[in-house]
Design a protein that fits this description.
Radius of gyration of chain A: 26 Å
Order of helices and strands of chain A: HHHEEHHHEEEEHHHHEHHHEEEH
Function (chains A, B): Negative regulator of class I heat shock genes (grpE-dnaK-dnaJ and groELS operons). Prevents heat-shock induction of these operons.
Domain Heat-inducible transcription repressor HrcA C-terminal (chains A, B): 102-320
Structural class of chain A: alpha+beta
Largest sheet of chain A: 5 strands, antiparallel
Number of strands of chain A: 10
Helix content of chain A: 40-55%
Keywords (chains A, B): Repressor, Stress response, Transcription, Transcription regulation
Oligomer: homodimer
Distance between the termini of chain A: 50 Å
Domain HTH deoR-type (chains A, B): 33-61
Protein name (chains A, B): Heat-inducible transcription repressor HrcA
Chain lengths: 338, 338
DNA sequence: CACTGGCACTCCTGGACAGGGAGTGCCAAA
DNA sequence: TTTGGCACTCCCTGTCCAGGAGTGCCAGTG
């Protein structure tokens, strides 16, 4: 494949992204300094179409890139355009004002939506890869406890525990000491094993209570694990004239399904720094017309993913840069809070 | 105003809500057993239009209700149609499976969206009207604490506290005892006053630390107070053919602005059990074409509001019934968790 | 051999226009 | 007060036509 043909493809992608209209040979030869005439561009375009990189919505219309064309653009042509210094400062400032972990996630998702003008999705740090920092037991009534678990990513989970017998202050202290001794510093992935043996270690008269506690602990470790996601920027779906072929309906519905969102982000179990899934490359049926750009984040190892969802005709260099930059800053912040 | 005229208005509202098309005199006289001819209905319609209850999109079209018409319908004509027994059971079951307060809110908002086929908004229980049940201090590093506040509505707030001096275990115990002694059981509304005096009560060598702690406490009591809202069912905006005149854009944007949502729900500072704001009655400009049905909820006193947002041409009896029923169940659940 | 200008062809788009239909307002009669 | 009749208005749909943009192909040129 010719160098010039690649340039023609780039021109088509860039113009189409900018104008949202099929781009013709004349426009390409004029607006991009290729040094050849429109007729030559036409020949190249015929080749590119034959090869499946571009297509015509109908005869006598200009060309638009196919998913395969965008893929080539992303892989070989798109230089990532870094954020401006001002943008970087703004990102940094905004994120460093966060008051707790939830706030970091909330701010991140808004920031991504705003920077990219697209729908942003951020996964809350997965519990799986974090470890227990502290467990707190608070007695509410004699037969009711509140269990609060704090992880090293700063996440807090709380649960009510109904216990079978009345507890004294000392009982609660005992239990608190026990669970902390056993679980503090342990990875959540290992927790279920440890929790299973918990009841056996308690004083005989506290066995029943300890096993009720163990049951709830297990739930809160296992059940809610990496379920939560934050979404922002749904309004951006209406930019550029409702880009999704049909209605917004299925997209808006999918955006409220946590399971779907997890698929969207999560399949990137790869540790790749950044993933771009274009059109058909998406496994989620509703997003076959969309592009998803995701990145992992976390202090050292990856504890979650974030990304944006937009039309295949998106500004790839800009979007990729934004996602990458934000993921890095968030990772830094988590690192500091370690 | 004639009884029959009211019946005509009801017929117009019901048919328009059902079909989404202007309704003509013939349809009214045929489908609703009024026992009069179309010509008579036409006379009544002329009157209703004169009085501002209905209007014509253009000459030679049927009539559609105005906001004033809906208002009359709601006030005088709409018998609320209660949920079916099956629905009530489903609501109860779904809500009682919630595992903590956040989960109650999440489930509630989804439930409302599903029951009403509209956009649902639920305010997290306001901190203002709740009181402190327990404060927990966990030392993370010698100069860093985590503060966890548990309120009697079951809400948990966490914050990091950077302290100026290194703390021993005993120091932390001391501080924990102090803040709990002072704040436990106190209403959050009274908390700022108490917090102000906190530093003065600490041992001299802990003064600086106590005042850092007080500062953070104050923030977490005041700042985040009743800021959070949950939204669900945005996809329902696309039902019935994009009901909002213009694009969905401003609506979707408004739904991501917590401030706007609070206005939407909050203005109902009235303790009215249920509020219906139709069209212009809404103070938020973006929702002038919409109807908002809200209800307060809480154990005994109102601690938050919930509601749905939909087109003025909504199924009022059904929607009102659903909002009322859900608000009641949620209140019951909070009551139990007291 | 690659590039270029010219030309006929295709197909979308928007405006103009007419016919059909639904609904109204008014009037005279019961 | 109600009713049937009738003329009128206006929207909606489909058709037609001209204009425009873009293409493919071909023959000519360096």
């Amino acid at each position: 494949m010719d160098d010039r043909k690649l340039e023609v493809l780039r021109a088509i992608v860039e113009d189409y992204v900018a104008t949202q209209e099929p781009v013709g040979s004349k426009a390409v030869s004029q607006r991009h300094a290729l040094g050849v005439s429109a007729a030559t561009v036409r020949n190249d375009m015929a080749y590119l179409e034959e090869a499946g990189y571009i297509q015509q919505p109908h005869t006598s219309a200009g060309r638009i890139p196919t998913a395969k064309g965008y893929r080539l653009f992303v892989d070989r042509l798109g230089k990532i355009k870094p954020l401006s210094a001002a943008e970087r400062r703004a990102v940094h400032r905004f994120l460093s004002e966060a008051i707790d972990l939830d706030d970091v996630v909330t701010r991140t998702v808004r920031l991504l939506a705003q920077l990219t003008h697209q729908v942003a999705v951020v996964q809350y740090p997965s519990l799986n890869r974090s470890s227990v920092r502290h467990l707190e037991l608070v007695s509410l009534t004699p037969t009711r406890l509140m269990l609060v678990m704090i992880t090293d990513t700063g996440r807090v989970e709380q649960r009510y525990v109904e216990v079978p017998a009345e507890l004294t202050e000392d009982d609660v202290l005992d239990l608190r000491r026990l669970v902390n001794e056993q679980l503090q510093g342990k990875a959540l992935a290992d927790a279920p094993r440890i929790i299973a043996g918990l009841a056996g270690l308690a004083r005989p008269e506290l066995r029943a209570t300890a096993s009720a506690l163990a049951r709830v602990l297990l739930e809160s470790v296992v059940a809610r694990t990496e379920e939560r996601v934050a979404v922002a920027g749904a309004a951006n779906l209406t930019r550029n004239g409702n880009f999704f072929a049909g209605s917004l309906r299925p997209i808006l519905e999918a955006l409220e399904e946590e399971v779907v969102l997890m698929q969207l982000l999560g399949r990137a179990d790869s540790n790749a720094l950044l993933t771009v899934r274009i059109g058909d490359e998406n496994e989620v049926a509703d997003f076959r017309e969309a592009t998803v750009v995701t990145a992992g984040y976390g202090p050292g190892s990856v504890v979650g993913h974030m990304g944006v969802l937009g039309p295949t005709r998106m500004d790839y260099p800009g979007t990729i840069a934004a996602v990458r930059a934000v993921a890095r800053y968030v990772s830094e912040i988590l690192e500091q809070n370690r």
